[in-house]
UniProtKB/TrEMBL annotation:
<dbReference type="Pfam" id="PF02580">
    <property type="entry name" value="Tyr_Deacylase"/>
</dbReference>
<feature type="short sequence motif" description="Gly-cisPro motif, important for rejection of L-amino acids">
    <location>
        <begin position="130"/>
        <end position="131"/>
    </location>
</feature>
<dbReference type="GO" id="GO:0005737">
    <property type="term" value="C:cytoplasm"/>
</dbReference>
<dbReference type="GO" id="GO:0106026">
    <property type="term" value="F:Gly-tRNA(Ala) deacylase activity"/>
</dbReference>
<keyword id="KW-0963">Cytoplasm</keyword>
<dbReference type="GO" id="GO:0019478">
    <property type="term" value="P:D-amino acid catabolic process"/>
</dbReference>
<dbReference type="GO" id="GO:0043908">
    <property type="term" value="F:Ser(Gly)-tRNA(Ala) hydrolase activity"/>
</dbReference>
<comment type="subunit">
    <text>Homodimer.</text>
</comment>
<keyword id="KW-0378">Hydrolase</keyword>
<dbReference type="GO" id="GO:0051500">
    <property type="term" value="F:D-tyrosyl-tRNA(Tyr) deacylase activity"/>
</dbReference>
<keyword id="KW-0694">RNA-binding</keyword>
<dbReference type="InterPro" id="IPR023509">
    <property type="entry name" value="DTD-like_sf"/>
</dbReference>
<keyword id="KW-0820">tRNA-binding</keyword>
<comment type="function">
    <text>An aminoacyl-tRNA editing enzyme that deacylates mischarged D-aminoacyl-tRNAs. Also deacylates mischarged glycyl-tRNA(Ala), protecting cells against glycine mischarging by AlaRS. Acts via tRNA-based rather than protein-based catalysis; rejects L-amino acids rather than detecting D-amino acids in the active site. By recycling D-aminoacyl-tRNA to D-amino acids and free tRNA molecules, this enzyme counteracts the toxicity associated with the formation of D-aminoacyl-tRNA entities in vivo and helps enforce protein L-homochirality.</text>
</comment>
<dbReference type="GO" id="GO:0000049">
    <property type="term" value="F:tRNA binding"/>
</dbReference>
<dbReference type="InterPro" id="IPR003732">
    <property type="entry name" value="Daa-tRNA_deacyls_DTD"/>
</dbReference>
<comment type="similarity">
    <text>Belongs to the DTD family.</text>
</comment>
Length: 142
């Protein structure tokens, strides 16, 4: 897997081997959600081992992580044809939690986490190996 983010035609971040995390922050999210999500992400066994079985974590493969904020993950399409983003957190909540999430991941990973730019018009490119795409919701931890 590899990913990159460009803003206004300039590369902001590039990673080769690891995870691209698209994170949407909801009104009710808090630092406990950040803690749970970071630990879950870092320990997910979704990379192939020597036998080709998904049995290794991003820590095991010494992979990289890129985090891109994406409020559209909270789109509600129940009524009409125009999505509602009412569950997406406002900037005063979302920005600090986004930074907290990136810092916690970096701390637990033991190296810098690549990022996009919160609120920017980004072009995100991804080569998804597998493809493996996993949706995680901190409101459904059980």
């Amino acid at each position: 897997m590899s990913a990159s983010v460009t803003i206004n035609g300039n590369y902001k971040s590039i990673i080769e081997k690891g995870l691209l995390i698209l994170v949407g922050i909801e009104n009710l999210d808090d630092k406990q959600d950040v803690e749970w999500l970071c630990n879950k992400i870092l320990n997910l066994r979704i990379f192939d081992d020597e036998k080709g079985i998904m049995n290794k974590s991003v820590l095991d493969i010494e992979g990289n992580i890129m985090v891109v904020s994406q409020f559209t993950l909270h789109a509600s399409t129940k009524k009409g044809n125009r999505p509602s983003y009412i569950k997406a957190a406002k900037h005063e909540v979302a920005i600090p939690l986004y930074h907290c999430f990136c810092e916690k991941l970096s701390q637990l990973l033991g190296k810098s986490v690549a990022t996009g730019e919160f609120g920017a018009d980004m072009k995100v490119q991804l080569i998804n190996d597998g493809p493996v795409t996993i949706y995680m919701d901190t409101k459904n931890k059980e």
